[in-house]
Amino acid sequence: MLLTVLALQAAALPDIQLRAEVRAKSVTVEQRGTSRLSVYAEPDGGSTVQVQAPPTAAKLDNVVITIDAKARIATEAASASKQGE
Length: 85
What we know:
Elements (H helix, E strand, L loop, with lengths): L1 H11 L3 E13 L19 E5 L6 E13 L4 H8 L2
Antiparallel strand pairs: 1-3, 2-3
């Protein structure tokens, strides 16, 4: 039973994971724009990026931004079925 639980936990883990937390006492936004962060694996098995950040304003105090990026490499079977579509 313990081996089954360990196997299920291992299957849920991403192949590559990046987690960053950025803290700043003060941030001044001088120019607004768009920023993008993505991760990609070949063949892609469902990579994701989640960013938690406060709403933008001209001046922010005590800012915390958390980034959680996970890349998953598809199994050969999943990759083959996507190519056949």
